[in-house]
Amino acid sequence: MRAEDGPGPPLAVCLTYRWNRFLDGKDEGRDAETPEENPGAAVVSVLERGEAPFAIVTNGKHWRLYSAKTHSRATNYYEIDLEETLALDDPGDSFRYFWLLLRAPSFVPREKLVDGEPVQACFIDDLLRGSEHYAKRLGDRLKDRIFEEIFPHLAEGFIEHLRGRDGKSGAVTQDDLDRIFQGTLTFLYRLLFLLYAEARDLLPVKEIRGYFERSLTRIKQEIAERSGDVTDEVSDRLRKAMSVTSCALYDRLADLFRIVDQGDPDRNVPVYNGGLFLTQPDEDDRSAEAETARFLLAHKIPDRHLALGLDLLARDDDEKTFQRFPSITSRSVSVSSAASTRACWSSACASRRRRWPSARARRRSSSFRTARRRRTSSRS
After folding, report:
1. Relative to the CA of 209, which of 114, 177, 192, 267 has its CA 20 to 30 Å away?
2. 299 and 364 assigned to the same domain
3. How far apart are the C-alpha atoms of 208 and 214, rounded to whole Å?
């Protein structure tokens, strides 16, 4: 693809393949001409060689738009399923996106001011820049929301389950609070890991009759259906719809953690090489990692607390329409955002003067108030 007013360098290159060919690896079944080629790797090589600033990869059904400027060229791309779009009763908006983003004028650079400086940028450049700014704001909001709202929902869920199981009506012990803090921290980062991995297809979430049935994506969709999209109504609807005694959602997540930890050939999930999802700690293992794994096996979060926390983690609020929509920890949130969130919590966990996420959150329960008084007295 070149500009109309001269030969010049190409604006974009297009790699085309057989209809519905697999775009992320080899495909001997549907591609007799280039069965050994990996289109996802081929397009990265094209961009790295500087053949063009943009590249389109298509098998006729799926159309992907890549940019040489993204931080992860292999996984950061815009994709549309053209066959699915045209099969809609009203393909209007979806097809307009396809036309708008892949037409030649969208790749033609023009002089414009960016941060007060004149630059040559095309329409796709503008979208990328806006996306990066949005991802930064989204990551910042996510970290604030975790400290202020999500962590308290999950921690209070563990407290309620502990009280119900052990018959405790008052404040739990400081040792219990410490274990709940570490358990909630690990549980939360497991959720972040899964949201990120599923959004980037690092887990086979598109296999509807396989992994998807157990996936976090399915769970968060079910919660969203119950809560609706109107921001001011989400919390009340979930409180009415979700039980404070059932822990069915937690049990489903525990099963998902086991699948990731141990692998599941039937669902095309390999064994996870790491301790985050440890679900079968050895009896003689007294490491902090093993102790937290035992806590998460022995304790649960009731459906209401878990649904409220997970919905806040998985969706964001549109300030213009006052509706909640799925966006958080999808492709728009970078690895560094998730990593920095974990780093914040790890730092808090290691601190001697560890505090619960916010003063407002601590005042929600007598357990938080008790923990605060004990920490205050220990400093004096």
Report:
1. 192
2. yes
3. 10
The shares of helix, strand and coil residues in the chain, as percent rounded to the nearest 5, are 55, 10, 35
Please, are residues 137 and 318 in contact by the beta-carbon 8 Å criterion?
no
348 vs 41: CA distance, rounded Å: 40
pLDDT for the residue 374 = 41
Q: How far apart are CA 215 and CA 196, in angstroms?
A: 12
- Residue 229: CA atoms inside 13 Å, Cβ hemisphere, count? 8
Q: Are residues 342 and 277 in the same domain?
A: yes
Q: For 171-216, what is each residue's pLDDT tens digit?
A: 788 898 999 999 999 999 999 999 888 987 889 998 988 999 999 9
Does 229 map to a domain?
yes
What pLDDT was estimated at residue 364?
40
Q: pLDDT value at position 37?
A: 94
Per-residue pLDDT tens digits for 220-255: 999 999 988 887 888 999 999 999 999 999 999 999
Q: Is 158 exposed, middle or buried (0-12, 13-18, 19+ CB in 10 A)?
A: buried
Q: In this structure, are 324 and 212 located in the same domain?
A: yes
Q: Which residues neighbour 157 within 8 Å (Cβ) at sequence distance 6 or greater?
A: 300, 301, 302, 304, 305, 306, 309
What gap in Å lies between CA 23 and CA 27, rounded to an integer? 8
- Does 60 map to a domain? yes
Q: Answer yes or no: do 238 and 98 share one domain.
A: no
Burial (CB count <10 Å: 0-12, 13-18, 19+), residue 125: buried
- Residue 132 in domain: no
**Quick check: pTM over 0.70?**
no
Local confidence band at 7 (pLDDT 50, 70, 90 cut-offs): low
Q: Looking at residue 208, what DSSP letter applies?
A: T
- Using CA atoms of 120, 123, 129, 131 in order, give the dihedral in degrees to the nearest 10: -170
The count of domains in the chain is 2
3-state secondary structure of 358: coil
**348 CB contacts (<8 Å, ≥6 apart)?**
354, 355
Tell me whether residue 53 is in a domain.
Answer: yes
Q: Which residue, among 12, 356, 352, 323, has the nearest Cα to 150 in the 3D structure? A: 356
**CB atoms closer than 10 angstroms to residue 66:** 27
DSSP secondary structure of 94-150: HHHHHHHHHSGGGG--EEEEETTEEEEE-HHHHHHHHHHHHHHHHHHHHHHHIIIII
User: How far is Cα of residue 269 from the mean position of the Cα atoms in its chain?
Assistant: 18
